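Check these lines:
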Amino acid sequence: QVQLVESGGGLVQAGGSLRLSCAASGLTFRPYGMGWFRQAPGKEREFVAAIRWSGSTTIYADSVKGRFTISRDNAKNTMYLQMGSLEPEDTAIYYCAADRRYFGRNGYEYDYWGQGTQVTVSS
């Protein structure tokens, strides 16, 4: 059974940093793309970042470009999101996603999702 588990969320002051992790299990196929999404209460799910299997290609939402860095360690079946210069607008539940082939901005293209981890940024 495929399972994605996010961790690393918490409370941080504006301007601070957090690193999120997404540990994947049950994804026996290779390669697979991965991405990060977030959702605030009353808001639509929003694309954050995505990364190709090899890590050679990454894409970011304009709102986080230059502040967030996505990476992955396939030997550990883990994806990361290093978040810096955090702003209150970054407050949301952050979800990781994976797909056999797809990586990109469209959340509906991903087949597998984690349960999310809460990130709260105080002003």
About this structure: The mean pLDDT is 96. The two ends are 40 Å apart (CA to CA). The chain is about 0% helix and 50% strand. The first strand starts at residue 3 and ends at 7.
